[in-house]
TrEMBL record:
Keywords: Membrane, Transmembrane, Transmembrane helix. This is Membrane protein. The chain crosses the membrane at residues 6-25, 46-68, 88-104, 125-144, 150-168, 188-207, 213-233. The keyword Transmembrane applies. The lineage of its organism: Bacteria, Pseudomonadati, Pseudomonadota, Gammaproteobacteria, Alteromonadales. Signal peptide: none annotated.
Amino acid sequence: MLTLHTLTFYLHILVGSMALLLVWVPLTVEKGRLNHRRFGRYYNNAMYLVSLSGAVMALLVLIDPMMIHGHRLSNPANEQLFVERMRVFYSLLLYLSLLVYCGLRHGEITLKSKQNKKLLRAKSHILSNALLAATSPVLFYLGWQESMTLPMVFAVLGLVTGLSNIKYCLSDETIGNTWLREHISAQLGTAIGAYTAFLAFGGRTIFENAGEWRLIFWIAPGVVGAIAIRKLCQKYAPVQGTKIASRV
């Protein structure tokens, strides 16, 4: 189990680093051009691997925290607290993996379906977003119980994301190029998740002496990403006032 975790960890770091670089190509290349689409696919494939490997690592730790991270326990008397916090921390990683998967899938299907929402109403897509929304209270409670801010923040984000995606998928009408706004928001949302995870997990050693100030580094990608989403949506998918009935 430890060997599997180690191998998965290195795969996660490798493809995650690739994704952090790849995301800038579709962001900077004009929309609709070949490189934009090609590198968009490369980015999505890398992020699917990030999501899968993150979920596998999280499940392994949740099954046996001491086998995977027992060497980090400095005081055996604190083992119970250590195990509890490990399980909350990796419940967050598991939840982030689901959040990223839902965002990737939503961004892909939205682009393919555009005004026709038949693909968006696939049971697998609806159920994955329903799972994201339904498990958010559990993550929030775990974070609240352990006085950990990040699980509570991402529980709220996941709830809003899941419900928003489901609402869009099941609605009978679209407004002009709303599909493009959904695509941009979903794809950039996964990039926000990637950079947040890098700072929150991979960068925690760098910021370990920063105390509560570490939250600034963890939340910053979301703030910057939200501004970027707004700007890109205004540029490529401005709000249009004419409603168009979906052909579904």
